[in-house]
Amino acid sequence: MLLSNILKNIEYVCSTKNLNIEISDIVYDSRKGKKNSLFVCLSGCNCDGHKFYSEAIKNGAIAIISEHELNTSDVPVIITPNTRKALAIMSANFFNNPASEITTIGITGTKGKTTTSYMIKSILEYSGNKVGIIGTIGIEINGEVIKTDNTTPESYEIQKYLRKMVDAGCKYMIMEVSSLGLKWHRTDGFNFNYGIFTNFSSDHIGHNEHENLQDYLECKSLLFRNCEVGLINIDDANYKQIINNHTCKIITFGFCKNANFIASNKSLVSKPNYLGVQFNINGNLNIEVNVNIPGNFSVYNALAAASLCHIINISNKYILQGLNNVKVKGRVEPVKVPGKYTLLIDYAHNAMSMENILKTLKEYKPNRLITLFGAGGNRDKNRRYEMGEVSGKLSDISVITADNSRFENVEDIISDIKVGIAKTNGKYVVIPDRKEAIKYCIENAQDGDIIVLAGKGHEDYQEINGIKHHFDEREIINDILLSMKRG
To answer: What is the count of structural domains for the chain?
Structure first.
């Protein structure tokens, strides 16, 4: 594409008037520079791309986007006030504005983004639509999952994969929109058709993230200045700040009687291999739904998904089917077992998330709640103490094992976890080999037990001494069940 076309809608100045240069690609990592590429200098928390423009030129860049003058006359330097914002708009131009050809749904909130995404996806797919997803688990297009470093990738990747989704026949794109993604302009370059706010609580405060809670809240609110219709959890105490200065039409959901979509009559559903909730939706939609994911938070996530799908004219039949059969990889994910107990895989890998899931599961009054978990190596030791204490208080049995030990000794990590458990009266066993620990849980399961394998979730690897070894808990469980059947 000609550089002049890539620069459409960008505020810039340039010393040269000849911008009819054919650009092969846009890059923002100088090491990935290629022949006839356009290099964008991005300023980050740890690294300033302006320092590497010479390397980019050596690797084939024939034009540079910068926020200030550079000491080079080798290639044109285009100066713009914000290169991150420019990258988003240029990427949209470069891929011929794919968002204009697909319905875009953005979801923001501290919790529930992934689950809500997959609930919407399940409903839309039952209705016969192809759906693409961008989020924590990765970028998913027609069953293929491309792993990403961030929940909300850089704007270039968003536009690149939006184009792939359109070309693959997807009618909808669902994106988990993180506060940092909004802060760093990754979702600039297009307006979402729909935005969803799930909830807000303290998170992501500190170096390289948000300086304080107000900044975190303000960044999340940006989505509702960049979408056409906003669906808002009216029960959240911060919702008014989230919609402050909004430019979209607002529709609300919650248990509150003033909401447009109202949840009521929540009850728990518990049977082997199925833990869920049942509730009614009234107001703009009147149906009773069953959701194949446990907990009060599942009601909010399902209510958001059902409200959105009703607004876009998906029939009740598919809303009911989608929610009753939804499965989110690594998020309270049930794994079928032959016994009369329930086995779940969950991504809970810190004290807060572990406490949330264990308190939720205790509401189902299991015979025993058994929690298998470890802790990540080369991370804050307080996390280990806290996880040990939470599991000791809430589990009937804790099975302490390995997670991603990285460059630490597993036994040392386990010793730290035991410090936390020692503050409680909780029973525990130590089995350092995670596969053997899973086997122990399955072999000793009793009728009515709930077993949760915490920490790995959607991950399919264990990181040991800097090497990622394939480790998918679903495959491990299947192998154990097959060996038990044979033996």
So the answer is: 3
